[in-house]
Amino acid sequence: MAKIKIKTKKKFFHPSLLIALVIILVLFLGFIFLRKYQKDNFQKKILPLAVKKVINNDKTQFTIGEIKEISGVYEFNLTVNNQKYISYISKDGKILFPSAVKLYAEKNNSPTAQTQGNQTKKLTCNDLTKTKNPNLTAYVVSQCPYGLQMQRVFKAVINEQPELEKYLSIKYIGGVENGKITSMHGDAEAQENLRQICIREEQKNLYWSYLSCYMQAGKSDECLANTGVNTSLLNSCITDKNKGLKYAQADFDSGKKFNVGGSPTLLLNDKQIVSEFDFGGRVANTIKDIVCCGSQTKEDFCQKEISKNELATSFSAVDESGGNTNQNAACGN
């Protein structure tokens, strides 16, 4: 009688494979846990120390919100004096960027994003508020590259059309805590803001001379001496709470009324936030056009075209830029 051979299936799932899968899973979970631990540690310990070092004022209150990795750095939400900013820091915690320019917009095809984009209307001259005596105010901080650029643009307007000076003003963004002025980029900037405010208020004829010098390299002491600012009068303003801090608080209150957080921000006729990029960019001719659009009557200078040259950002020994600086960029939000 012939023997019948019964074939049995080989076991496909080998015990060693199970062990390997368990090891991979453990390593993966360990990696995720480590990344989360490192991020939490960074957010709770390293980042606050970095922000404190930049603010340089132990009495200034700040909060750090959501943090995420983006383009090789951490992006985080920072709130200082009830003003919100989006800032960046290197992963080793050694370099903090109070603001940044995104060269490529992030794509977002969600319905919400599309709706918001459709609601953003580019303003025209007809959309701007009109008044008999127009005023265009630029809100800035003194160490912001783009705030400096806007101040440089205002200076160019005044140089080309001096009659426009009475329609232009510079105000500053910041806060006052426990009798001390604060600013988004720290104490040095806050003190420079106060210095410029005091010169603007009490030595008005020297404001643009001082600013023209300061914008070259940020050397305050040299510029005070070179432009003839009365330092005794200036120091009295800075130290007298009924002068310097009072002037500064008026600026800050005005900005907060319109939720101004970015340097620079333009406010027309104390009523309407306006983007210079709706009217040609951050150049002198645009500023002239916005003033004219905000006026009920057209002055002679409205018929004259002035400079459309791009001007330098940050500190610069020359006003005009050799590159593409006409970008919709600002410090803060």
UniProtKB/TrEMBL annotation:
Spell out the subcellular localization from the entry: Secreted
- Organism for this UniProt entry: Candidatus Roizmanbacteria bacterium CG10_big_fil_rev_8_21_14_0_10_36_26
Any GO MF annotation of the entry: oxidoreductase activity, acting on a sulfur group of donors, disulfide as acceptor
Where does this protein chiefly localize? secreted
The record ties this protein, via Gene3D superfamilies, to: Glutaredoxin (3.40.30.10)
In Swiss-Prot or TrEMBL terms, this protein is called: Thioredoxin-like fold domain-containing protein
Its lineage reads: Bacteria, Candidatus Roizmaniibacteriota
| Keyword terms of this UniProt record | Glycoprotein, Membrane, Secreted, Signal, Transmembrane, Transmembrane helix
Query: Which sequence ranges are marked TM in the entry?
Result: 12-34
Phosphoprotein: present as a keyword of the record? no
According to its record, what are the GO cellular component terms? extracellular region
